[in-house]
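Fold this sequence, please.
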Amino acid sequence: MDAIDEAIIRCVLHDARATYAEIGKAAGLSAPAAKRRLDRLVATGAIRGFTALIDPQALAWHTEAFVEVYCTGNPTPAELRQALEDIPEVVEACTVSGAADAVVHMLARDITHLEQAIQRVRATAPVERTESAIVLSRLLNRPRV
């Protein structure tokens, strides 16, 4: 990974739909050279994919929460992921250190919808209980690296 690769990554983080010419300009390369470098970054796994960032407000999902998940037994991360992946309101889940086994980021239309989704999380096999913190306002939201 060199400065040119970093410039390419910054460019596609800013706009995943940037043209090869735009990527090349940002990295000081021609469009064909930018394509080759970008293809290499994808092939090596440095760039795992391209995605659209959807504004939850556009979906009318205005309620957001971070939910600590406490499990019975000692489920593996793969088991916990399998338990959560079919709940569409779970937009991100991470195992964590500390008392909780995982922290789950959830989006929902409203409090009632959020409550129903949390109940579905609680109904999964390894989950014993949850503790929720509802987001009041988002202060910062940077692109993920």
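Helices lie at 3-14, 20-27, 31-43, 77-84, 111-122. Strands lie at 63-71, 90-95, 102-108, 127-134.
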